[in-house]
Amino acid sequence: MKKFINKPENIVAELLEGFALSHPDRIRLVGNNLVARALPKAKGKVGVVTLGGSGHEPGLSGFVGEGMLDISVPGEIFAAPGAPRCLEAIRLAEYGSGVLFIVLNHAGDVLSSNLTMEMAKREGLNVKMTLTHEDISGGTNPEDRRGLVGFLPVYKVAGAAAEEGQPLNACFEIAERMGRNMRTLAVAVQTATHPSTGQAIFDLPDDEMEIGMGQHGEAGTGRMKLKTADETAEIMLDMLLKDLGVKAGEELLVIVNGAGATTLMELFTLFRRVDQILKAKGIKLVRAKVGEFITTQEQAGFQLMIARMDKELIRLWDAPSNAPYFVVR
Amino acid sequence: MSECITKDEFGRMVAGAATEIRTKHVMLSELDCAAGDGDHGATMLRTMEKLEKAFAPGGSDDLKICLKDAGWSVLGVDGGASSSLLGVFFTGMADAVGNDLTEMFEAGLAALQKQTKARPGDKTMMDALVPAINALRSAANGGKSVREALYDAAAAARAGADATRNLQARYGRAKFLGEKTLGHADPGATSISFLFEGFYNGFTSVKGESNNA
Predict the structure, then answer these.
(1) Which domains does chain B have, with CATH numbers?
(2) How far apart are CA A278 and CA A188, in angstroms?
(3) Is A49 helix (H, G, I), strand (E, B) or coil?
(4) Candidate from A85, A107, A197 with C-beta closest to B38
(5) What was the ipTM of the complex prediction?
(6) How many angstroms away from the CA of A145 is the closest CA of chain B?
(7) Other Cβ atoms within 10 Å of A124 Cβ, number
(8) Would the pTM of this model clear 0.90, i.e. be above it?
(9) What is the pLDDT of residue B176?
(10) Where are the domains of chain A?
(11) Of residues A79, A81, A220, nearest to B39 (C-beta)
């Protein structure tokens, strides 16, 4: 393993320190290594909190900022934080109108957040939890679908709704509506190594790719010979459009998220083909993002996400944000 | 075995478990590489540190307080599902202090089963934990001593963990691997078997006593 780290057990604390120091005007660490906005939200607005393992930078703490998240609770490398720190974050993000708790569907995150919700209820805190689960490789049962890069539009639209003063129920409904209307599929061509253990997470021969690869490098289900960018985009987009049931004339947001070692050169090449296919089918591409929003170390591959948009979702997606890794002016 | 366990006895069990995990954590991480991300050993090490701290000399003499502290600090390990589940387990045990050891373990299991739908056969820690606690129950009903009961529990946990080799994961991250999980023991179940082996070793570690049941 060739990584610029110090002691393995200090990776998370040191990366958070560096992240906060590099954005002192927008981010600060509070309490037990919680990532919060430098300037807390105004009283009376809904707080927005999320949790998730580290090692996926800029996910998830890169999206803390005005117009998006209030606090993110980072866990250890690839591991969910426990309930105590999540509860601490929710207490801090209570500005008088309740807290929206956005959770990506992964076993550890769900367990921690369910425990957090029980404790929060006992304390009389007003919290609503929304689960993102849009990875179609998990099968048809929503419980089996993991939360991948779809967290990004959910943070964005729910965060914008909270920022403009919408009540908790409305923020929750917007997050759920965004969640219901999005689908993601991931593909990997090269493994990542766990930065603490130095061990490769899975084996993948040089000439193969695997569709359905998880965010933590969990090996996926569909392994095949490496295909061209166009062929890969076609296979994946076709599966996504079918699963979401997209019809001609509908409006889509598309995100191409690099896994860490896949270049922008490749991501743009893939996106170009996605755009061509959508045009040919008469589907409107209304918004798009190509880049790295959640990574898995030096894993190579990408996630392709599509989301059906409506007027309000587009408006909220376009609203301002000063989150370090998602600035909208 | 109907007598209540003391704080010192449980503290010895925890110390025994910590020793066991410290000796074998590399193997746990290796098992985790087969179907996970290879950090299970490190998570278990951090978990054992918290557990030992909760029972460290100079702390409370009240078993309930120690177990509550243990549960809360293990929840705070931030090591994904494994540490959260163990935190829930010790918190559940704390609520049953005052009952005998078997009842305490059963309360821990009941608390756990409220948080996860995983059951034996799903290739998770439940495959070792449920047989271990069933063994404690049988031993207690059969009038065996705590030491004998813990010996049976360790053997049952070990057998349960070994048998996960032939199971396909149906829970947690590893479920997405399907058949690829066959042939490797589940790291969570293996940890549980180490814990119970350590509980037995720790319980029997009093000077002058033999380690054989």
Answers:
(1) 7-203 (1.25.40.340)
(2) 23
(3) strand
(4) A197
(5) 0.86
(6) 10
(7) 6
(8) yes
(9) 67
(10) 8-180+317-328, 182-310
(11) A79
